[in-house]
Write a structure and sequence with these properties.
By secondary structure, the protein is mainly α. Helix content is about 75%, strand content about 0%. It is built from five helices and no strands. Helix 4 packs across helix 5. The N and C termini lie far apart (about 45 Å).
Length: about 80
């Protein structure tokens, strides 16, 4: 699989937010923090691909990382 092909498989911010996991996070946390966390995870996955790695792009794996990042951001807000 080429780098371009891998990049095309990255979920969009909108796809992540509209997924069941994303909707659940949006019900619990402020939208701006959820979207920021989604963007951070997608950017990280993109960087991994550009470095030649093969990150897990399954929505479940992406959503788990989004929740981890979100909780880190939320903890700093408190």
């Amino acid at each position: 699989m080429t780098i371009q092909n891998k990049l095309s498989h990255l979920p969009s911010v909108d796809e992540c937010a509209k997924s069941p996991q994303g909707r659940k996070l949006l019900e619990t946390y402020p939208r701006r923090i959820v979207i920021r966390s989604i963007r951070e995870v997608i950017d990280s996955r993109r960087g991994d691909i550009l470095e030649g790695l093969t990150p897990d792009l399954a929505m479940e794996a992406v959503a788990a990382d989004i929740e981890r990042v979100l909780k880190r951001h939320w903890r700093y807000k408190l």
